[in-house]
Amino acid sequence: MTYHFDYLLLCLSTLFTLINPIGIAPIFLTLTERFSNSEQKIIAKKGVLTGFIVLITFAYLGSYVFALYSISIDAFRIMGGIIFFRSGLKMLESIIARTRTTPAETEEGLEHDDIAISPIGIPIVTGPGAITAVMVLAGETDGAQKQILLLLSITFVMLVTLTIFLTAPKIFNRLGKSGARLIQRLMGMILMVIAVQFIIDGISNVIVTILLNIKS
Question: Any idea what DSSP says for residue 21?
């Protein structure tokens, strides 16, 4: 019993730390500020659902998917870093996508530029760290009970993330436009730093792998 409880705590603490729903809430808000409250809720639900599907997929099929397409986690890190840097640069410069003037255009824009899936679902909610974590945790499952605990952990953390996304606008609105812009720029800087680190880690690991192959 204690053995499974320890595994559950490991799953919850690891996923919550890597996904960091409290830390990514301001990023979610700045990326969705051009949308109405109802649209923000739709994007939040769709983004979290995307993250949930991605984590479940990689938890149980990740090693097969990577092997099938010859994809490394470092390639995913580099891709995530590029997306992070692009989003962070826009936030730092306070560049907001062109505002639609009619509900029809807004709906069309939401469907055309679906930020719920990317970058919110991937890689903000579900980044390389979280994907790597679920693959490692899944590798430690030695029975159905641990698999269920991993599934419950992913579900719980995703529900917490959704709850924070849905309640964050009320807190964010109290900051006012000046406070919102300040947080937006700060989050943009943080995103760009994270992006650079992702790219450095990915490229460094690729270089190390190449050097090891040459020596061997």
Answer: H
Q: Which residues of 57-82 are buried (b: 16+ CB within 10 A; e: fewer)?
A: ebbbebeeebeeeeeebbbbbbbbbe
Q: Which of 135, 169, 112, 161 is nearest to 62 (CA)?
A: 135
The 10s digit of each residue's pLDDT in 172-210 is 777 666 776 776 677 778 778 878 887 898 899 899 989
Residues 89-112: pLDDT tens digits?
Answer: 877 776 544 433 344 444 444 443
Task: Compute the distance between CA of residue 73 and CA of residue 133 in angstroms, rounded to an integer.
Answer: 11
17-22 contact pairs (CB < 8 A, 24+): 18/127, 18/129, 18/130, 18/133, 19/51, 19/125, 19/126, 19/127, 19/130, 19/157, 19/161, 21/157, 21/160, 21/161, 21/164, 21/165, 22/164
Per 3-state DSSP, the chain is made up of helix, strand and coil in percentages (nearest 5) of: 85, 0, 15
Residue 110's contacts (CB-CB under 8 Å, 6 or more residues apart) are: 35, 39, 42, 43
**What's the pTM?**
0.69
Q: Tokens for 156?
A: 């719980």
Across the chain, the runs of DSSP E, i.e. the strands, are: none
